[in-house]
Protein 1
Amino acid sequence: MDAVEAPYAVPPGWSYNPSSWGQRLPIVGLALVGFGIATYLALYQWRVFGSVWEPFFGEGSRVILNSSVSRVLPLPDAALGAFGYLLDAATGVVGGRARWRTMPWIVIIFGLAVGPLGAVSILLVIFQPVLFDAWCTLCLASAIVSLIMIGPAMDELLAALQVLKRARRDRRSTWRAFWGLEDHQLPPVTAQARHRPGRWHHTENVAGFAED
Amino acid sequence: MWAQLLSAILGVWLMAAPAVLGYGGIAAAVDRSIGPLAAGFACVAIWGATRGVRWLNLPLGIALLVIPWGFGYPSIATANSLAAGLLLGALAFVRGTVAERFGGGWSSLFGSGTPNHEAADG
């Protein structure tokens, strides 16, 4: 957790801020690793590379990466995976340190991008031995990366959904809350704010205090 | 958290078991399907905010206990399935410690009671 956390960057009832860079950057890093692996595999599937690295399972990677399942869609499956990882990284980076509250929409897109990518990974890992009797080392590595990302991403999604829940409970517009247009956790100019003018002089700016 | 790590290792073991113990057929297909699911759920459940996902490994454990009896498993596969199922199901009950607070968690999104995350709302 950031040492200089703005007070209203921690969701109510939480012990930490799920949108802090310390929370998000590791996920973005994992997404970029996944993007690298998937891009390499996609380039093999497009025959930019003539062979693929496979240290453990002999012909396994070639069998898997040329299987019928990998060509079900117009694009090779690794290319779709690479796009998914890129979407994860991009939606992980956008927004400030209070984005669960100031930009719930991007947090929700982020959660929706990370979750299903991991689910599809599990499915593909099952297909490898059951349908094709082969294993693909880098495909497994990619699956591990996508699975490790899910847990750390879901806490931020929870905080964003709680913002919408509060809006609905108070009969405010969940639509406006979704886009971060109504920020009901902005503090009024409090005694605390007056004592710390350097941190709070942008109170009218929705995200201002989160960006210092 | 150790329970989730153990469950993840158990899932990976199920993926490797057919090759290591030398069995195939339906037993291998079942273990190679349940293994990635168990490892995946455990992997997500390692984190505090999604610790509840560990319960998804309970039905998988029960499946490992039940399926061997109907499909003519070789005895080594049956023994492995029963041991893994028992362990996986038991580990689902182990919540472990969650140091962080999440404003009432996922259940706070449902129902009409005052959720924890609202109590602190200004």
Protein 2
Amino acid sequence: MKRQFLLLLLLCFAVAAPLATAQTAEDSPLSGEAAVAVSPAPGPVSNIQLKDTDNDHGHSVTLSWEISPDDGAGLNNVIGYEIHRALSPEGPFVKRAGVPAGSHSHVDVGSKEESSPDYMKDYIDYYYKIRTITADSAVNAESTVAGPIQSYGQWFNTGRVPVLIFVACFLALTLYFINRAKGGADLYVRPLAGIGAVDEAIGRATEMGKPILYVLGLGTAADIATIASYTILGRVAKKVAEYQTGLIVPCYDPIVMTVAQETVKASYADAGRPDSYKEDMVYFVTQSQFAYVAAVNGTMLRDLPATNIYMGKFYAESLILAETGALAGSIQIAGTDEIAQIPFFVVACDYTLIGEELYAASAYLGREPLLLGSLKAQDYAKAGVILIALVGFILLNFGVDGFKEFFFVSN
Amino acid sequence: MNGSRWTMIVLIAVVTLFLVSWAIKSFPSSGDTISWPSIRHAFFVTLAAFVTLAIFSFLYKDNPYYKFAEHLFVGVSAAYWMCVGFWSTFVGNLIPRISPGLSKFFGVPYKEFTFYYFVPLILGILLLMRLSSKAGWLSRWALAFIVGTTAGLNLIRYLRSDFISQVSNTFVPLLVQWKGTGAFFSDFSLASGGQFTLMLTNWVIFIGTFCGLIYFFFSKEHKGVFGAASRVGIWVLMITFGASFGYTVMGRVSLLVGRLTFLFDDWLGLMN
Amino acid sequence: MKRQLPLFLVLIFGLFGIVQYFIPHEKSEWMYEFLLDWIYIIGIFALALGIWSLMRVSWDKIKHKRQNWQYSIVTLTGLFAMIFFGFNYFRDFFNSAGLQNYMFRAFFDHIMIPIQATMFSLLAFFIASAAYRAFRARSLLATLLLISALIIMLRFNPYLGFIGDYMERTALWLLNVPNLAAKRAIIIGVGLGMVATSLKVILGIERAYLGKD
């Protein structure tokens, strides 16, 4: 039964297939004729404007045009436009891109690599024309040739002005407050629990005769959190040197290790105890995340440091480190700007410096007027941000969008 | 029984287990004869299982097996990254630009002589001067170059990618789709897409961000209204940290499941 | 000379790092790419210092028979074995085929990868002990953290009936709304902290990392 049904089905196909082909064969010349007959060429685009692309490194031209009268109106047969480029008005023109109907502009971006086939040389004349295309490849309309235009790179990106203004204002604020601080102005800073704990912890370690473990995190020398961490390490090391306590600094990144060695050495010299500095205090472990963690865990359980300080960039290992330290009974102080890791430190450490507090820590520990001055600048910048946010959102609620647009930064 | 005897018993048990596992694993599953590659492979699979268990043993307490795995891991991984760094960066990137002879020696295609690549070479050598007690200070030039460049580049990178967009995203309408008080109350709903919820969301985001920033003020005493705002700020932060903590818990459990799968499936072959 | 020149270098390269962002021109891009390459290359020399430091610390431990010195032998053995295979001394003297060497790959696949994955999976236990620590919360802040963590963890619990439904909605709201506000505040604060720290370094106000004398 099943086999008969299948056979019947096959038979149907066999009969239907040539019929269908015949139908298409009959259809296509008809439709072709119809296209030629009823679809005349659309109107070409007009008023082509060429300019070098703004705020770029060159090798690019921006085109804009008025669309064909038959794009969305008139014959309504335009399906898109092709951009063609040549080195002379006579050609040969090479197709660079295709854009859909309704497009008014296109950015022709070439490669900056001379070896690339797409290389687009700066400071030479280019000519463009735009072909209006329809569903039938034989039916199209070419614009007049536009040009010449040269591409070149700019020396200033105007799209990034907000960032420049911000950096300039912040720099001015910092310099102003540093000057004020130099002049002897008393700058108040509120107490931070985590910072107070550092002194306490060093004292405790001295009493117990146990070392302090300072972990700079997994940041490389390229992370600003790590730079902040060096500065904190410098202050901690100075106190450690004064108290004659031990210091252990295992490092993940070799450059960080080198900088940390330099920092600790300087701090010991500052504290008047250059001879107490040992090169082995700051050592390299490995550049593998979990091997580093395994080693630091081992140090925590074997050397039993009185205090563990974690400052810098941390990733998934934060919890392993902090929990092991907590189980080993050390006092723990942490600080990171890595938002995903802050919760783990908050849970497992005694004190945690959250985000910006990490960057403020060195000023707190050093208590030097210069650094406190920059802290004040940070606060003023924050007040500025709050003010801008307030203004921005009041304007937005009154229907003014321009202010928000000003903060748009081009990539 | 004293401690050292226990240690010996455990050691013998571990070694025996290792050898048994190695032997069993050396037999190919299809029943073919034992070959050198299968013995070699069996050794490494057993070693992987051994180091896995050694690391897990840390949960009980620090012990010689953990210490062994930890120290082995440190040595192997340090050398691994050194080899990878040497072949990919030093030989792959530097050598083909400074010396045809060395390129040939290392078997990499010579690109073209680029004078500028001598700068990192010189700075790198200066960095190695650290090993000398007299010329050690020269290494600071290299450090200064790295610290300066990265400070400048990262300052901008962070501002560009996060900071400015976060500031401008704070501008949110507090009266979403506002059509007057009457309409607000007559169309009141608690649905997640409703006007009230959207407005509440925007208010919480705005006030939360505002108070959070106030918490980070360092040079003003947190008293009075300022102190209250700062307290709200730290509450919002703590609620967020809790949420983030809770969110991660399940993800971490799945990692453990992955390791147990290795032990029971790849090593012991119990799962199928 | 010992300190002035490094400070000058920091200033010059730091300023360039900032300025290049505003200059789209090819020359600035070209310099930027060079600088990144340079940092990587210097990193390799630094890595040599790192390996030297690791060897020295391990060797010192062995020499002075410090506590657990035996394990330093394991470290050094692993290190030298890996270098030996990584440089392919075994077959062809000194070539990059070392990275494809069977033993080099086997050490990577059967020592590094399993230990790495196991260390990572330890997080499951540590997060449990951390949660226990959070449960004993005594302060208001810790309680807030605990409650919100609980809501998130129990959000898909089918045994909670209609409460579970509310919990799921609250969890979603917590993750979308206060979370966004807090992250925004942190990001803005961190941004300012970073700019301040970078400027202090570039301007030479913060110079502890350059050592003394």
Protein 3
Amino acid sequence: MDNKKIRQIVIFGDGVEAQLAALVIKSQFDEESFAVSIVSGGSQNSSYALSLQPESISIFNLIGLDEKTLMRNVKSNFKFGTLFENLDGKGKSCFQPFGTHGGPMDLVSFQHFAIKKRIEQGSFDYNDYSLAAKAALANKFVHPQNPGSLLSTLSYSLHLSAEDLEALFAHRCRALGVNVIQGAVKEVNTSNDRITNVVLDDLTQVNGDFFIDCTNQIANPFAEAMEIKIKSWSEWFENDRVARVFSSNEGEELFTRVKADSNKIVRQIGLADGSAQDVYYSSRVTSAEEVARELKSDSLAKDVVDEQFIIGTREVAWKGNYLALGRAFGQYEPLNASNFHGFIVGLQKFIALFPRTDDCELESFELNRKLNLWYENMRDINLLYHLSLEQKAGNSSNNLSAINLEKYPQSFQHKFKTFIDSGQLAYYEEEAFSEPFRSSLYLNLQFWPSAYDPRMDRFDMSQMNTRFDEMKSAINSTVAQMPNHLQYRSQYLDS
Amino acid sequence: MIKNIVIVGGGTAGWMTASALARHLPEACDITLVESEQIAKVGVGEATIPVIRQFNAALGIDEKEFMSRTNATFKLGIRFENWARKGDAYNHAFGFFGRPINDISFHHFWLSINQSEKDAWIHDFNVPSVASDLNRYAHRQYNDEQMGSRYFYAFQFDAHLYADYLSEWAQQKGVTRKEGIVNEVSTNPENGFITGLTLDNGEVISGDLFIDCSGFRGLLINQTLGIDFLDWSHWLPCNRAWAVSSAYPSRDAEIPPYTRAKALTAGWQWRIPLQNRTGDGNVFSNNFISEDEGLSQLLENIEGDAINEPRLLKFTTGKRDKLWHKNCVAIGLSGGFLEPLESTSIALIQGAIMLLLKHFPDNNFDPIREQEFNRRMTQKYEESRDFLILHYHATERDDTEFWNYCRTMSVPDEVKFRIELFKKTGFVSHNQSDLFIEHNWLAVLFGQRIIPENYDPRIERFASQEIKELLQVMKQETRDAVTAMPIHNETLKNYCAGDLISNFEQAKR
């Protein structure tokens, strides 16, 4: 069979994901090379707001969208991390910041200082050594600055209005000549593991050389036609529905809130004009009506959108001339990162491997291998949060090494045991978060190891104590001098 | 806490391990190293790769002193001769090709220029490669901002002197050296853990943790604990090496800042230039030529006079099934041996030491630490193995039975995949933790005449003339940076002279 040169790319999806895929392709490749179309079915199945990771922001540079222009158009707030609330069912919370904690200690990571101190004195607040955490909770913000200074340890991200971003992207898509076709997918026709055409509900036949699925639906006609199986993670994640609502109440916080609330997980993202809430729940425990009733009790809330979802991934993201990105490939609970982040990771990997023809076996193998690893790592990070809830709810023994991990995936068991035994992180390729972030997550969720790196005992602890006491003080005084979030944002966007 | 650590074997692996443990572990740990002057050291790894600098820096070793004491020279890479075809030569140099533009690797831009219009080979855009060709070396730290500083360096040194240097250093830090041959190893009948060693003088040395640096035989890991060896000789078929030292042809000979690997009929010959001599060796497979033929080839191909008796090393490429078992960790040849082509021996020793420190056991010997160590070491060995296989397999040579075998042998899927993906797209697949990353693979892939059919399509946004001009500028920058460098001999003389070849006559005697 002759390989077909890719000239027509068709992207399916209704939200910012499909638009962003189109914009990136249009901006990264020779305009003459490809015709890009979006097929939009007109259904809304995304959150009202997006919560980005620091690593996601660079994608906007690729499409020539600078931070200020972006923020001005999408009611954006800055973000320093995530506040996890009600971890123990009694109101206890923990903040998980971006950026680093403490500082380098020869070859030993900072968490070992914390573990050693905690063993010695019985308690230790890890976030005392994070400028981002302290600043976020004080609602203070500045951009990272001066390499080597305390302010350089900051790392930030953004909250955005999905609706506004969609409008902004739509404008840019039109300007770049992206053709938008309205219609829902009725039938996907294939031959030899390749899509030949897609028939819409009005019987329009959409032809193309390469098809990108940004529909945000893991089970859909494409997966069925291409015979791509789904690997469900429901044995570890019970929630199978999400209710989304937007409320005009205050939303100026420098963090995403994630609250565990009687069998539900509520995620709240603050924007300049309100906040978006996504409620993840299990249909076996709670009904959609009950959740909607609860959400509508907030007088400022707009319409509630409720949808079913599957936590897990497809076996592959890319098969033949078909690629599924973001939630069409895999979905995870957006605890530390939104699914939009997973979409961006997949898109970036695809751009680096962009095929010239529809013979993509090698490229797809590479992308599938790496993307699967990335999603599995994200799954394992989320399992840590669930394990934390389970532990606290069950008032389990403090002996963490005695936790029965058998029901969890092998990789999670290995990672957890390694950290709890020695405070060290097991190494896996394609981790979704940096090492400092992962170790701080363990400690902030109160998974304290019983041992620390023995190399710590070579250090002069009085010197170390002085050094990090000074750092703690410097963090507090720096936060005191930092401007208020709103004030800073307003000045920044007006400048 | 582990109190008593016993290291068996005092070569490069043994003393590197002893030094690192003495430097990083609490002072309360007692470290004993057992070695015997009656057992010859293999002394592998006279050539290194840049990661060794992190190891030395973590010990706090003074670079000048160390280089002077070990007759070390600087190493910018490896020069491969006759590998893809007879008469070919290329450098695998420790630095980047050109500069990326808009996050797209440089080589895609170079590939986009029509073959007929190319006026430079890709290695001409690599500063350490061009510097190697001209025997030049400027001692500076990596600086991404300056074209002339976008390279890394390693060392070529006398491995015996390095072991001696570290031996002295470690003993000053409190490591106890015991002279003796291990006659017996005792184990706990209940759990199989090693409890102690009995030396030929009757002394019993007990310990909590035993590090096996005993060389190929694996006295503890294999002979005592019975951990099997995974044989990779079907992929890396060389199993013999004749080694000899030779003198420089003259006192004013230029010392190359690189190791040479010249492919012969059934393997290859190394030439590692030190300050006072070269280390030479013929690595070959005795399935294709005899040991005598191997020796003749070695002596025919050395440039100066041999200054010692050639010695024969016998090995099988591969690794132990696991390097850490119970309370024993195998580091160095006891854990595995690939072959010296890419100077990975010391890097793998270093990798094992750093992983051991990271996952250092306590008295419980929780199996999770052993598991993570073994998992990571397997990845490191396999990754190095795959990179080595590339050199043998990606050849056009059909002039001997050996090269026919290598060219047509079945290789691990991972190697096959990486080559095919590169051929098709110009994309280099590698893992984030790999020892050899994009520029390393590129040097060898291009050097072995694998030229991709395509390049990154994002480049089509750039005008061809614009790319040509960018390339012209980078080529000139590269050339200017190298021209401004002193010759390697001069840098050695000013920075770290030991027995620099001014003592040539003495070395010859």
